[in-house]
Design a protein that fits this description.
By secondary structure, the chain is α+β, with helices and mostly antiparallel strands. The protein contains 7 helices and 18 strands. It folds into 3 domains: about 190 residues, no CATH class; about 35 residues; about 90 residues, no CATH class.
């Protein structure tokens, strides 16, 4: 056979399946109503004829209707089942609205090609909003099409369903229009429309758990930082007027500018000045060839030959030696122009 699962009252905080009715909106004192028979099956038919069935509980929030006889196999082909039942605890009451929360076909263990529902409200009640969910439990999918009608609303899935996927139907209307007995029996918790994390944070217990987890995380990080992550104390800041040992002026300029500009004219100028500071060259300022009045030119004159020449040497670093060889080589003078 097949079965139909129907969700009913959400378990209260005291562990009882009960609902409190507020005296402010409905009149009378606040009282607790205990449901005696939340699901009453009126008839089950297959092909217009009565079909055997039985009901069983699936926990505090759900009941199952099992249809058919064990060991009885149906012939392949289409079969029309009609279930008629009266259900309590499918309504919810909020400030400014009443509503119906209905799991249209339950979480079947087989796929469904088409799922749809039509709800007819009591005469005189006009629905104001219809929406729903699709997918497995807590999926919050929106693969459906719904619209309001003169008598209620309709909803249908826009895709086929896999096993244990379902269609949730939510219909709302102005408050206070139902029979007074509906309010006396109470309602279930209102459905939440949003992401799973927002839904999870709607209860104070989950907020307390979140705060506890955040506090424990902060405490653990603080202890680790206290013993392992503290930086050593900073010493006195002393100005250095010379580059680190083994680092030339040009190399120091390059290190300071490599992230932004790389090796540029400033680095080249620093290298030239470094050669002059070590006595390898002499820089002479001469009258420039530029037509602009007051412009100057510069010439380099070798004073000492770099390491390995066999002559008088200067204590040059490898990059300074390379710069010297590329500029002067064996020459004694070099005039700096844009060409060279």
């Amino acid at each position: 056979g097949i079965f139909r699962d129907i969700a009913w009252l959400r378990e209260g905080r005291k562990g009882k399946h009960s609902s409190e009715v507020s005296s402010a909106k409905r009149g009378g004192k606040r009282r607790t109503i205990e449901p005696k028979n939340p699901i009453e099956v009126l008839s089950v038919k297959r092909g217009g004829k009565n079909e055997p069935y039985r009901t069983e509980g699936l926990g505090p929030e759900e009941i199952r209707i099992r249809i058919g006889r064990e060991g009885t196999f149906l012939k392949p082909g289409p079969h029309l089942y009609e279930l008629t039942y009266r259900a309590e605890r499918l309504l919810y009451f909020q400030e400014g609205q009443d509503g119906l929360y209905w799991n249209v076909h339950g979480q079947w263990e087989f796929s469904a090609d088409k799922v749809s529902a039509t709800v007819v409200l009591p005469e005189g009640i006009r629905a104001t909003k219809v929406w729903g969910y699709t997918g497995k439990d807590r999926d919050w999918g929106e693969d459906y099409a719904a619209e309001l009608t003169e008598t209620g609303a309709t909803i249908k899935a826009t895709r086929s369903f896999q096993a244990r996927e379902n269609l949730i139907f939510v219909l709302e209307w102005p408050p206070g229009l139902l029979d007074v007995r509906a309010y006396e029996r109470g309602g279930r918790e209102a459905p939440f429309r949003g992401s799973w994390i927002s839904h999870w944070l709607t209860t104070i217990e989950n907020w307390r758990l979140l705060i506890l987890l955040l506090g424990a995380t902060f405490l653990s990080y603080f202890v680790v930082w206290l013993f392992l992550g503290r930086d050593p104390r900073k010493g006195a800041v002393v100005t250095r007027y010379f580059p680190p040992e083994g680092l030339s002026a040009g190399a120091a300029a390059y290190c300071a500018r490599m992230d932004r500009l790389g090796y540029d004219d400033t680095c080249f100028s620093a290298g030239i000045l470094g050669l002059a500071a070590k006595g390898a060259i002499h820089i002479e300022r001469t009258a420039g060839d530029s037509p602009i009045s007051g412009a100057w030119s510069y010439a380099l004159h070798a004073k000492k030959i770099c390491q390995g020449s066999g002559k008088e040497t200067a204590d040059l670093s490898p990059d300074e030696t390379s710069l010297y060889e590329n500029l002067l080589g064996e020459a004694a003078d070099l005039k700096l122009t844009t060409k060279n």
